[in-house]
Design a protein that fits this description.
heterodimer, A: mainly beta, 6-stranded mixed beta sheet, B: 7-stranded mixed beta sheet, 4-stranded antiparallel beta sheet, globular
């Protein structure tokens, strides 16, 4: 079956630091890939997505590129802010079924 | 109202109580989901409804009973829960044909005493 493995947290960074959260997946066919973010006290919300190989999803300074050869979809941001503190989930959708990673907690300190 | 709404936002119940969680989506989607999110555990998919029909039940105990009367509303009926059922219950919706981005509600924080 499909699976998503993402970098274990928690991750703690200083403001303006560079962020990478690794995500790799196992799936048959050509899944769509997603990053969701969950801020404290809220549900998950879509951060970005990519639907085919080599696509780059981007939003709010975050980016991730669909790498089929390495089955990866790593999340990056060049300069994090305190307001980026949240839990980040990598996910895929294949054959109409969604699979989520375990989530990575990011804390950004001033 | 826009997006996905859930009521109540917080619920405290005893093990012998019966309560219901409500979810409503205002996005015109045709699929709805219940997830359980416990502290320090992965997100757990509980139930999936496509076009009001239940298509997935991930071995959820019978003390959780879903109901989907139409494509905009989803309920989770709770009966004789256990303390380990305390968690955040998230509802989501999606449009099955369009890449399956899921839109989540804010969740109901449930405490079972």
């Amino acid at each position: 079956g499909n699976s998503v493995t993402q970098m274990e947290g928690p991750v703690t960074l200083s403001e303006e630091a560079f962020l990478t959260i690794n995500c790799t997946y196992t799936a048959t066919g050509y899944p769509s890939l997603f990053w969701y973010v969950q801020y404290p006290g809220e549900g998950l919300q879509l951060l970005l997505k990519a639907t085919k190989a080599d696509d780059k999803g981007s939003n709010k300074g975050f980016e991730a590129t669909y790498r089929k050869e390495t089955t990866s979809f790593h999340l990056e941001k060049g300069s994090v802010q305190v307001s980026d503190s949240a839990v980040y989930f990598c996910a895929l959708n294949g054959a109409g079924k969604s699979t989520f990673g375990d989530g990575t907690t990011l804390t950004v300190k001033p | 109202e826009t997006g996905v709404t859930q009521t109540p936002r917080h619920l405290v119940m005893g093990m012998t109580n019966k309560k219901s969680l409500k979810c409503e989506q205002h996005l015109g989607h045709n699929a709805m989901y219940w997830y359980k999110q416990s502290a320090k555990k992965p997100l757990e998919l509980m139930f999936v409804y496509n076009f009001k029909e239940q298509t997935e039940n991930n071995s959820v105990p019978s003390r959780f009973s879903p109901e989907c009367p139409n494509s905009s509303h989803l309920f989770l009926h709770l009966h004789t829960l256990q303390p380990e059922d305390s968690a955040l219950y998230l509802c989501a919706s999606s449009q099955v044909e369009s890449g399956e981005t899921q839109y989540f509600g804010p969740g109901t924080r449930l405490l079972v005493l």
